[in-house]
Every structure is written in C-alpha cells, then in structure tokens.
Amino acid sequence: MSIEVGSKYQGKVTGITNFGAFIELPDGSTGLVHISEVADSYVKNINEFLSVGDEVTVKVMNIEKDGKIGLSIRKAKEKPPSQTSNTKRTPHKSSKPRQKDQRPVSFEDKMSRFLKDSEERLSSLKRNTESKRSGRNSKRG
Questions:
Q1: Which of 13, 30, 112, 140 has the most CB atoms lying inside 10 A of its own CB?
Q2: pLDDT tens-digit profile of 114-140?
Q3: 25 and 32 in contact (C-beta within 8 Å)?
Q4: Are both 66 and 119 inside the same structural domain?
Q5: Which 3-state string (H, E, C) describes the chain?
Q6: Per-residue model confidence as pLDDT tens digits over 16-39
Q7: Which residues face 62 on adjacent strands?
Q8: Domain holding 57: CATH number?
Q9: What distance in Å separates the CA atoms of residue 46 and residue 38, rounded to the nearest whole number?
Q10: Residue range of the domain that includes 107
Q11: Number of separate domains in the chain
C-alpha cells in the first residue's frame, strides 16, 4: 500500500511534541500532523486534543523528497470541495456592489475627503475638550 497525497487514512498517534503529533499510517510509515493542523480552533496545548494511542483520521497534505509525510486532521474532517466552495461563495455574491463598479476615485479626491473628515473630527474634539476644561476651578492664564 503506497501513501498518496490527498488521500485519507486511519492512523494511530505514536508520539506527541510541542509542535505536533506523529501518526503511524496503515503501511507502517510515520507522518507528522503539525499543531496548526490538529483542530479548526487555536491549539495552545496539543495534549488537550490528542494523546498517544488515539486513532485518528488524517489527510496526506504532502510527501517531501526525503520521505517526510505532512498530515492534517482538520482537513480530513472537511466537506468535499464541491460543497464548501458553493457555501462560501454564496453570501459574498449577495453583498452590496463595491465602489469598483462605479467610477474610480482619484487619489486627490480621497486625500481631500480625508483632510475634510480629519479637520471636522479635530474641531469637534477641540470643542469637547475646551468645554470640559472651563469648570469652576479652572485657572486660565
């Protein structure tokens, strides 16, 4: 049995390190699941997700020339590509049309809009700050 990239296999956790877990595949070879490929969420401590002797389903991500096998547990759990690509793209199409559909805005227009907004915010900030300073005990010099 030869291991192929993209295939899924049942494997057994044979060792755990701070950067990942070593998995023994059905043909007797060993691959590494990097800590970033263990779960969809952030994994701070791999021991919370795996322990030696666990049976896991892994997907072969790559096989390097020197024989190292890169594995992923989280990608082995994903839906087939035909389902995930449709569900991810559908909400994006329904969003509002972007400004690219309208005439492009020049750099000068963007800069003048920024300066105008900036001046308005600054004057508003000054007004609010000055009104707070003029209290009963304020000393002006």
A1: 13
A2: 899 989 888 888 888 776 666 665 555
A3: no
A4: no
A5: CCCCCCCEEEEEEEEEECCEEEEECCCCCEEEEEHHHCCCCCCCCHHHCCCCCCEEEEEEEEECCCCCEEEECCCCCCCCHHHHHHHHHHHHHCCCCCHHHCCCCCHHHHHHHHHHHHHHHHHHHHHHHHHHHCCCCCCCC
A6: 999 999 999 999 999 999 999 999
A7: 70
A8: 2.40.50.140
A9: 8
A10: 103-131
A11: 2
